[in-house]
């Protein structure tokens, strides 16, 4: 049984407020405490929290407003494509960062010598995080702002219906599903269970 839009709006709001407060509190402590800020294992957590707060303060608020009014908050082409871009790109950034964090824990716990020098740290710590951030932002920029997506914008659809652009080309849709959802989620599960087993 589907949940009605007003209930969805209320549920999002109830959980959004404490989520943002907790994330900002944690982010503040990670950034202001030098020991926490310099610890390699906290870098990816800082990125996840930062992107999470950004997603909550934009995308989630737009979802709440949409579910409350049943209309897109600002019905313009620029807003619709920006909403779709943020919804997909930032979500995938967070997913890839969590997947990388689940792999990196093994390196930092069991193979800490792999991050002992600046060069090793660059290739096994900073570069993977940078890829996890830059790749989805660039990929979805191309999907939403470079590739042609002929779609009729609808004020009564989430993201004006622009979200369908990521799935409109079959090969792109398959890549999007596998590379940005299936593989990272499997990696998170496998590496987290492997850490418990070790």
Could you characterize what this model shows?
The protein is mainly α. The chain has a single domain (5-197), classed as Rhopdopsin 7-helix transmembrane proteins (Up-down Bundle). Helices cover 78% and strands 0% of the residues. It contains 6 helices and no strands. Helix 1 packs antiparallel against helix 3. The longest helix has 34 residues, at 77-110. The chain is globular. The chain starts with a helix and ends with a helix. The mean pLDDT is 93. Keywords: Membrane, Transmembrane, Transmembrane helix. The chain crosses the membrane at residues 12-31, 43-64, 84-103, 123-147, 178-197.
The CATH architecture term is Up-down Bundle
Q: Uncertain regions: pLDDT < 50 for 5+ in a row? A: none
Secondary-structure element order, as H and E? HHHHHH
Tally the beta strands. Answer: 0
CATH fold call: Rhopdopsin 7-helix transmembrane proteins
* Biggest sheet character: none
Distance between the termini: 42 Å
| Overall structural domain count | 1
Number of helices: 6
Q: What global shape is seen?
A: globular
CATH superfamily: Rhodopsin 7-helix transmembrane proteins
CATH class: Mainly Alpha
Overall pLDDT score: 93
Question: Structural class of the secondary elements?
Answer: mainly alpha
The helical percent reads over 70%
How much is the radius of gyration in Å? 19 Å
Share of β-strand residues? under 5%
Give a short synopsis of this structure.
The protein has a single domain (5-197), classed as Up-down Bundle (Rhopdopsin 7-helix transmembrane proteins). It is 78% helix and 0% strand. The chain has helices at 5-32, 34-38, 40-69, 77-110, 118-146, 170-197.
